[in-house]
Every structure is written in C-alpha cells, then in structure tokens.
Amino acid sequence: MTKQAERLNTDQYADLATDGPYGYGPDVWYQANDIIMKYAQAQHILPLPYYELEARGQVPQSAWDAYAINVQGETLYCGLPVNVQSGMLFYIESMLPDNWQTDWDANANGVPDFFETYTALYVLSEDIKQNGGKTEYGYLDELVDTYFMGGYLFTYGAYIFGNNNQDAADIGLSRGEAVKGARMIRQWAAQMDNTEVIDKSFSSAAYNYLASGRMLCTVTTPDVRAMFLREMAANGWTAEQAEADLKMINVPRLPVSGDLTADDWRDTILRMDELTLPTRMMGGVNGYGISAYTQYPKASLAFAQFAASYEQVMLRNRLLGITPARADAAAEVGKTDDTVRVLFEKLDDEQIDVMPAIQAVGQIWTPCESFLVDVTTDALSGNRGEAVHFATDAELQAGLDRLVQQIHDAIFTLQ
Asked: 10-84+283-358 and 86-281: same fold?
C-alpha cells in the first residue's frame, strides 16, 4: 500500500501525551523546542540519529542544544531545527515621521535614532502622544507577554533556570539587575497609557494597529510577517506596496541605567557603547520532532529531513519570512536581508536566551504573566492618581522575589 504525507487539521493545542498512545495525531510534529521537548521528557518523541542528519553541520550547536536530552549520561537530540524565533521590531516605512532624517539621526548613519535605542523610542513615543504625528502611538507592545518582556530582564543578568536552563531549582528571574528591566516595563506602561497592551489579545490586534496607522512599531516574531502584510492589504496597500513598505529590524538597545528617562536620547546614540546595552531577547527554535507512536519512523524521518533541507527552508523564508537555523540558508538570505543575518549571528553567538527544554518551563508562564499584569496595571493606576505598589526599585525587587518563589512552589511544592 502506498503511503503519502497528509497535513492534519491540528494546532498548537494538540496533545501528543493524550492522543498519541491511541494512534491519533501526526507522525511528525512542527513546534517550538519547549513544546517538543516537553513531550520528549516523557518519551512521547523519538530521539533522532543525530550523526546521520544532513543538517548536523549546518545548524549551530545552541540550536541543537534546544532539543537535547540526557538519558543515562548520553546526550540525545529529539528535534530537527528549522528556524530561529526571537523578537524583531516591525514598522511601516511610509509611517516614519517626515523629519526623521533631519531631527532623528544624530549619528548620521541613515538609521532612525528611535530604532537604535529604546531611550530615543520612548522620547519619540511621548512626542507623538503629546503633539501628534502620522500615527496615534509610537511604540506599542503586549506588555504582559513573558516571551517578549523577558528581554528586559535578561539584558541585566536575569535568566530562567541555572546550569544552561537545566536546573529548575535555580530560578534566576530576579537575579543580577533584573529590577532595571521591570522598572522600564512599568515606564512603558505609563507612557503608552493603553489598557489593550496589558491584555493578551493585543498580539492579535497589533496587525491592525500597525496597518491602520494607530502605531508606528511593535515587537514580535518574524514568522507572523504574513499577518501584517494581510492586514496592510485590507487597509489599501497592494501586495507589492505592502512587501516594500513593511520593515523588520533588530530590536533597539536598552539603557545601562535601566531608566528610559535618565539620559538625553541623543547621548544614547552618540555614546551608544557607553550608555546602552544590546538587548537580549528570549527566543526559541522551531523544528520537527517525530512521534514515538508513529508506525512509520523511517518515512517520518525522511519527511523531516526533506522539510529541513536547504531548498525547503529557503522556500519557507520566501513565503513566511522566517530566519533559517541553517547556516547555508541564513548566509544566502542574509545577502539581501540584514535582519536575518543579525538574528542568526545572535543565535550562533548565544546572544538569544533560548527557552528551556525541560518540563519545568511550563510553570513559569502564569506567574510571570501575573507579575507583568500587576506591574503594568500599577503604572496605569499611577496615571489616574490612585495608590501604587511598585513605585520603587525595592518594591519591584520584592515583586520579582515573590515571582521566583511562586514558580519554585509550582514546580516543587504543588506538583
């Protein structure tokens, strides 16, 4: 009997642990590393023949490590990396202020200053808020999304788990100077003064916000570029115009001070190495895993290798705008797309905090989101003249310490 591949009508909420033993669900899974490895820890995903894989020499070790599991002292790899996920800044070029070249390019490098440092972006956003512009807002983002807001903490020394994200007993979200990151998230909430950005639904609303001119820019992952293009088409752009007008660049740098209002924004451009830090972002590696319940492991592996091949990854880049995890594909795309080159280099240099590949990571999301909701809501309360609870660094640090304790309890006490 001839077998053929079929795309099943499944989504990110499919449950291999529940459905797999009964023969339901796909043979090959395409998911983020933390999802695939959650199942791998419980032996629902097959280890791959790492040394036989065509992509082995093309993918950085940090990407393979996202799919690594230790079994009786041996490192096994349960996923085949395809693309890198991390936050990138999206904007529409025609929405830039008309005066950006004269008033917002202090270092004369042809890049708007407000896309180089968050301090400058904060000042621009406040200027638009006070004086108006082509857009209603400058920068808006979903401020309660741990994936994107985590970068504010990681830049100042925080981490998720110790020992290369393998030791769940060492929770580092309050370590280093993480309080600086929490302070800036609160500053952004006060500046934006928009209740939508403290709601999980903003990630869906962001496409229309950008395309309808309500905001200048936002941060999200490269793979949703098609969603912006689709919304731009609905707002009057032709396909060609939308392709040319939508831009995706690296996220701005953060101030060493951890205060978006501490320095003159021009100083953060002219003394960038002294006054700012490159922003570390949480990231992930999407790839293919093979169900332990498949009746066709060889065919599944052949399909995964085909889908992760140079030609298919290049096609995925053209259609979806993904950043390849393969060095050869990233090098080719990087000739014309500098953002892909930058994102791949950040992965290769281990400048992206890849989501942990252990089951305990599932316990960080709810407490982190609750903390972010509390901090951002507190900022809005301050705008209304109401009582606040996170006005000082000491209060923010105490909140981060409580967050760590809640995660610890969820992993070790309440399990």
From this structure: yes
Distance (Å) of CA 187 to CA 87, 147, 295, 316, 396: 20, 18, 54, 37, 12
Query: What topology does CATH give the domain 10-84+283-358?
Result: D-Maltodextrin-Binding Protein; domain 2 (3.40.190)
User: Would you place residue 2 in the very low, low, confident or very high pLDDT band (cuts 50, 70, 90)?
Assistant: very low
Q: For residue range 232-252, what is the model confidence (pLDDT) as tens digits?
A: 999 999 999 999 999 988 899
The angle subtended at Cα 85 by Cα 148 and Cα 327, nearest 5°, is 145
Residue type, 156: Y
Q: Look-up: residue for tokens 């501490």?
A: 262
CB 141 within 8 A of CB 118: no
| Entry pTM | 0.86
356: three-class secondary structure by DSSP? coil
Residues 371-404 have pLDDT tens digits of 999 999 999 999 999 999 999 999 999 999 999 9
Long-range residue pairs from 343-351, CB within 8 A, at least 24 positions apart, any chain: 343/84, 343/86, 343/88, 343/222, 343/250, 344/84, 346/86, 347/60, 347/62, 347/63, 347/84, 347/86, 347/283, 347/285, 348/60, 348/62, 350/62, 351/278, 351/280
SS in 3 state form for 165-211? HCEEEEECCCCCCHHHHHHHHHHHHHHHCCHHHHCCCHHHHHHHHHH
pLDDT value of residue 337: 81
User: Tens of pLDDT along 192-235?
Assistant: 999 999 988 898 899 999 999 999 999 998 878 889 999 999 99
Contact 118, 265 (CB under 8 A): no
Whose structure tokens read 């008033």?
A: 103
Annotated domain spans of the chain? 10-84+283-358, 86-281
| C-alpha to C-alpha distances, 240 to 90, 243, 319, nearest whole angstrom | 17, 5, 14
DSSP 102-157: HHS-TT-SSS-GGGTBHHHHHHHHHHHHHH--SSSEEE---TT-HHHHHHHHHTTT
pLDDT of 7 higher than 60: no
pLDDT of residue 13: 52
- Please give the CATH superfamily to which domain 86-281 belongs: Periplasmic binding protein-like II (3.40.190.10)
